[in-house]
Amino acid sequence: MRALLIPSALALLVGVAGCTGSPTPNAGGTDDNSSMVLAQAVEPTSLNPLLGYGANGAAKIYDGLVAHSADLTLAPALAEQLPTPSADGLSWTATLREGVKFSDGSTFGPEDVVATYRALLDPATGSTVRADFAGLQGVEQLDDRTVRFALEKPWAAFPHKLVLGILPSEALGVPLDQVKPVGTGPYQVVEHKRGDRLQLTANPGFRGGAPGVRELTVVFVPDDNTRAQRMQAGDFDGAELPPRLASLAGAASGMRLITHRSADLRAVTLPTGNPVTGDPAIRAALNAAVNREALVQSLLGGKGAAASTPVPETTPEHVDTTASIRHDKARAEQLLDQAGWARGADGMRSRDGAPARFTLMYPIGDVVRNDLATGFAADARAVGVDVQLAGLAWDSIRPRLGQDALLWAGGSPFDPDLALTAALRTGNPWGYSDPVVDAALDTGRAQLDPAQRATAYRQFQRAYVEAPAMVVLALVQHTYVVRDNWNGYQQVVDTAGAGPLSWGPWWNIEKWGSK
To answer: Which residues are within 8 A (CB) of 106 and not within 5 positions of it... i.e. 6 or more apart?
Structure first.
């Protein structure tokens, strides 16, 4: 079954790429190597940070008060120095840089920070990231260079949320979807042609100096195979590709394959509202049934690491090495037998006339999630659980998250709280709830002391393996192909869903140049 997947990808790669939309401009660089064309799978729904753009920072068009460095630590950006907490942890204060201007020439100041965050917090504004700042109560200007953020409870990871792009206060008097994309970042928008591409040009007034790559075009190509074809055909200067496609495209003359670590966990969610996946015995059995090491080797080509809990090894201080779920097919069979899920003549299980069957969704065109979903379904079928695969568009996936399983991608290299609380604390989209897990996550969020936080997240993992919310499969390495005539890439640990417009391979594109 798995062997059939790879030849089909090979056939697609050697075929002639069918291009849609406008011709791709200047792939391979202009005469003075100041233009670059990148390909991205996912197009942002908006270029407004209050509608989800650039959530992990490195947003190209915008700066936040802080930025993530290559070593994953925080560095000042629009703030002159890192924000500092009050003694009780209920507020954070930031002093802002002077002399910074937006790309439209207007001056940046504390009123812009206050206006951006107040728009985020106002329910009437309709910010789609408001829930991500649920612990933030308000923001105020203390003087002409200082702002203070007030929190409902201590929140150790809060400074990481200050990568949010700052908008000019004058721009926020209209609905968010009408706000012009004006920021203080290294690039400014020339044109966003939806469904096709985004064209950026260097911001000559950028505080870090005008970028060497003066013209940047990002072409949106959702299908992994098509993106690989077009990269190999010379349409792009760089693209993120699944490991097996990247290896093929990267072998072409003039191309370079880059592989690096990520905090990109892939897991199968198990909604509690589904009569099959809501059964604790099914959840435990599927965790024991899946052969994670085999998935990594056969489907990811070794470009990843097996994982059974949702705390990535990229933050080793938070990992409890004793908390894991090992592959044990016999144990999976025993759990299902004991729970009354009996095998029928066809080898599939049922209980009280209801089949052990559920649907597993994944984004259509996503090769890695398709492969992992197929491999997981095979391991589930081996113990008598029938997993029906469904490749769907995101608009079709979102309404079904509480009922059907999803091949989920998540994880943060910066702080465990940024991914775990939303995915696993009570109130998550799949309905999972565990009081011990909640308590550990709450402690990890509130404690400012690193040692106490590490203890809390290790406690979380021990509680999680006793009652898993999902089937964590692997930590996926990210692979990219880039033309050899460019340099400037700096090794980083990626977030899930990285890409040219934010954190990811070209997170520091403003520092790139040609060889």
So the answer is: 168, 170
Instruction: Report the C-alpha gap between 102 and 465 in whole angstroms.
Output: 48
Q: What is the pLDDT of residue 499?
A: 64
Mean pLDDT of 239-245: 88
Instruction: Return the C-alpha torsion angle 501, 502, 507, 508, nearest 10.
Output: 70
How many of the other CB atoms lie within 10 Å of CB of 81? 12
- How big is the CA angle at 294 (ends 289 and 297), to the nearest 5 degrees? 155
Rounded Cα distance between 108 and 92, Å, is: 20
What are the backbone dihedrals phi and psi of residue 43, each rounded to the nearest 5 degrees, phi first? -90, 135
Q: How far is CA 321 from CA 99, 263, 288, 332, in A?
A: 48, 17, 17, 22
Which residues have C-beta within 8 Å of that of residue 455, sequence separation ≥ 6? none
Cα–Cα distance for residue pair 285/503, rounded to 1 Å: 36
pLDDT per residue as tens digits for the range 483-505: 988 888 888 888 876 666 777 77
SS3 473: strand
In contact, 303 and 259? CB cutoff 8 Å: yes
pLDDT tens-digit series, residues 313-371: 888 999 999 999 999 999 999 999 999 999 999 999 999 999 999 999 999 988 899 99
Q: Whole-angstrom Cα distance, residue 277 to residue 283? A: 6
What does each C-alpha distance from 514 to 185, 204, 349 come to in angstroms? Answer: 21, 19, 59
Q: How confident is the model at residue 248 (pLDDT cuts 50, 70, 90)?
A: confident
Amino acid symbol at 153: K
Token pair of 142 as six digits: 């203390």
